[in-house]
């Protein structure tokens, strides 16, 4: 799997969410809406990104995107400002690990890298199992235990994307602008 070159987009990107919903409308005006697909795949993101870079960096980006167009493959990309690391506390009872972090910002299905900085819980990558409120959520441990202590969580923000359209302009010598649309895809 290819990873997008580590060239930072220009400030001012646009992010669009498009939840996959199906709506059934009844004659009496009642409307029923359901999310369509697997939980982790129900809200794909689209980013409109601009790179104001040197011609060399623009050639690198364009070459990378041309290669993905030729092999029809997705690539790993971390949008600027996405992902974070936060610290808090945890308690484990059985296989349920309850994590308390003020304004955690995670949702059910998010994949987190968890570092238990104290206690004897096992570090790793976990999916958020439930969200109690804006400060508490749970994950499921592989083994049953009773633990508590401090924790650090990281939501990487990286995802799989395709770029189906982009354009390049050269406004003046040795500078280039690339505008691209990255659409999130879900693949095994």
Could you characterize the architecture of this molecule?
The chain has one helix and twelve strands, in the order E-E-E-E-E-H-E-E-E-E-E-E-E. The strands form three sheets. It has a six-stranded mixed sheet with strand order 1-6-11-12-5-2, with helices on one face. Strands 7, 8, 9 and 10 form a four-stranded antiparallel sheet that branches. A hairpin with a 2-residue loop joins strand 11 (159-172) and strand 12. It is mainly beta and 188 residues long.
Short summary of the structure?
The protein has one helix at residues 55-71, and strands at residues 2-3, 14-17, 21-25, 31-35, 45-54, 75-77, 84-100, 111-116, 124-133, 136-155, 159-172, 175-185. It is mainly beta.
Question: Helices, strands, pairings?
Answer:
Layout (H helix, E strand, L loop, with lengths): L1 E2 L10 E4 L3 E5 L5 E5 L9 E10 H17 L3 E3 L6 E17 L10 E6 L7 E10 L2 E20 L3 E14 L2 E11 L3
Parallel strand pairs: 1-6
Antiparallel strand pairs: 2-5, 3-4, 5-12, 6-11, 7-10, 8-9, 8-10, 9-10, 11-12
Name its key features.
6-stranded mixed β-sheet; 188 residues; mainly beta; 9% helix; 4-stranded antiparallel β-sheet
Quaternary structure classification: single chain
- Poorly predicted regions are none
First-residue to last-residue Cα separation: 11 Å
Largest sheet: 6 strands, mixed
Shape assignment: globular
Strand content: over 45%
Quantity of strands, as a count = 12
- Computed structural class: mainly beta
Level of helix content? under 10%
Order of helices and strands: EEEEEHEEEEEEE
